[in-house]
Amino acid sequence: MTGPGGIGPEMGFAFPPGSNEDTPMFVISVAAQLSGLHAQTLRSYDRLGLVSPGRTAAGGRRYSLRDIALLREVQRLSQEEGVNLAGIKRIIDLENQVDALQAKVTELTEEVAAAYAAAESAAAQIHASYRRDLVPVRQETALVVWKPNRKR
């Protein structure tokens, strides 16, 4: 699987055991090199809330592969699309909101499917409990008694 920004096993990068693309593992100098930005720019983006790297116990920044992909996207939006940093922050916030809403829709869809399956199962159990000695009657069979009005 390729990680964010094309970093992954295909590019010669393998995740250490127990880690993934969200695991903070790169110091700021390595993250700057991987993202193509200056370390001071990364610090500035952190202060502005564009990218929020993990922190060590001593307070040092540790960037994940997802952070590096986000840094690359910030750079692309800024340089290629001409979006200012406030606009980029809004875009990132909206994308995060969309991701959260899509996850919630998936969760609710799964809950509805489970509730539907439970209802179907309960209905099947009720139908299975019906007495078998009852004779089913066809619905279209009917008895009509006709009493004509007598003329006086």
Automatic annotation (TrEMBL):
Residues 91-118 form a coiled coil. Keywords: Coiled coil, DNA-binding. GO terms for molecular function: DNA binding; DNA-binding transcription factor activity. Residues 25-94 form the HTH merR-type domain. InterPro entries: DNA-bd_dom_put_sf (IPR009061), MerR-type_HTH_dom (IPR000551), MerR_fam (IPR047057). This is MerR family transcriptional regulator. It comes from Saccharopolyspora terrae.
